Automatic annotation (TrEMBL):
Transmembrane segments: none annotated. PROSITE patterns: ROK (PS01125). GO terms for biological process: glycolytic process. InterPro entries: ATPase_NBD (IPR043129), ROK (IPR000600), ROK_cs (IPR049874), ROK_glcA (IPR004654). Its EC number is 2.7.1.2. PANTHER family: BIFUNCTIONAL UDP-N-ACETYLGLUCOSAMINE 2-EPIMERASE_N-ACETYLMANNOSAMINE KINASE, ROK (REPRESSOR, ORF, KINASE) FAMILY. GO terms for molecular function: ATP binding; glucokinase activity. Keywords: ATP-binding, Kinase, Nucleotide-binding, Transferase. This is Glucokinase. Gene3D superfamilies: 3.30.420.40.
Length: 323
């Protein structure tokens, strides 16, 4: 038994991969997510069999299967409690359904957690045991690896960094129904929230004036303008960075990560974002908890999910057997 099967299920495509025990990719491919409910899982199984047959590999000789899903997870039982992007409602017993096809170990986790595990093993986390990842995209996902394992909490809501209250004024509403979450000020939508909030209340002029007035400014516009010395855009990135740093600071006194990894579309803001986060982080974090902690940009891009889903099998099957 030498190979790991990995699936990262998204709203439009499922990324699939076959890995060796050291999490090197032997093959990766995508299929479209064109069925709902259990049909997606059956499609995944069928595609695995086709690709394994080409390599003369038997699915029952696989070490295990790791699956990333965009929804809240009951990790112990491999159950997803709804996934809006997949049109899954109610509890879907992913592990139990997949066990109809594959009788080896199956681990299921949410997309932010598997991306974190991918970055820990093969990306910016340098295979350290203490790693935090914040994925700043349309929303904000988070994952915390402490003592080499992902934190899940008692009902799977651990490490939901996106819903950490960072804006004490609670100016913007979050998708979760609360106000003031990190997601409302540090996602792509959050960047735009801050642009509109501050532009009408301050005198800094911006090259984005027309976009802002027409309400079609994007986070990318802000990052591009900031790189061209647009002062208002730099001011906005500084605000975003302050909120991210605050979340990173609190996490640092909890789990003392070695690497705090910033991923997702917002991390395309690049060096300026990291520099501003570092500035705020150093000013607000308990000294011993920030010593030798590095704030870095994610390295794996879209592959973080399948590498991390395979990483579930490495963490919970291979490394446990070796202990
Ligand atoms: Zn929220």
């Amino acid at each position: 038994m030498t190979h790991i099967l990995s699936a990262d299920i998204g709203g439009t495509t499922c990324k699939l991969g076959i890995f060796d025990e050291s999490l090197n990719i032997l093959e990766k491919w995508e299929i479209s997510t064109n069925k709902t409910g259990e049909g997606i899982l059956e499609n995944i199984y069928d595609s695995f069999v086709v690709h394994l047959n080409r390599k003369n590999l038997d699915i029952n000789s696989m070490i295990g299967m790791g699956i990333g899903v965009p929804g809240p997870i009951d990790f112990e039982n491999g159950v997803v409690n709804g996934a809006v992007n997949l049109n899954w409602t109610g509890n879907i017993e992913v592990r139990k359904i997949m066990q109809k096809y594959f009788d080896g170990p199956i681990y299921v986790d949410n997309d932010a957690n598997v991306a974190t595990l991918g970055e820990k093993f093969k990306g910016a986390g340098q295979n350290e045991s203490e790693v935090v990842c914040m994925t700043l995209g349309t929303g904000v996902g988070g994952g915390i690896v402490a003592n080499n394992v992902l934190l899940h909490g008692h009902n799977g809501s651990g490490a939901e960094i996106g819903h950490f209250l960072v804006d004490q004024k609670k100016r913007f509403k979050c998708n979760c129904g609360m106000k003031g979450c990190l997601e409302t000020v540090a996602s792509a939508t959050g960047v735009v929230n801050l642009v509109h909030h501050y532009y009408s209340n301050m005198s800094l002029k911006s090259s984005l004036h027309d976009h802002i007035m027409n309400k079609n400014v994007s986070a990318k516009d802000v990052f591009d303008a900031a790189k061209n010395d647009d002062e208002f855009s730099q001011f906005i990135i500084d605000k975003v960075a302050g909120y991210i740093a605050y979340a990173a600071s609190v996490i640092s006194v909890m789990t003392n990560p070695k690497y705090i990894i910033i991923g997702g579309g917002v991390s395309n803001a690049g060096d300026i974002l990291i520099q501003y986060i570092e500035k705020h982080y150093k000013n607000m974090t308990f000294r011993p908890a920030q010593d030798d902690t590095h704030i870095v940009v994610a390295k794996l891009g879209n592959d973080a999910g399948i590498i991390g889903a395979a990483g579930l099998i490495k963490t919970y099957v291979i490394e446990r057997e070796n202990k």
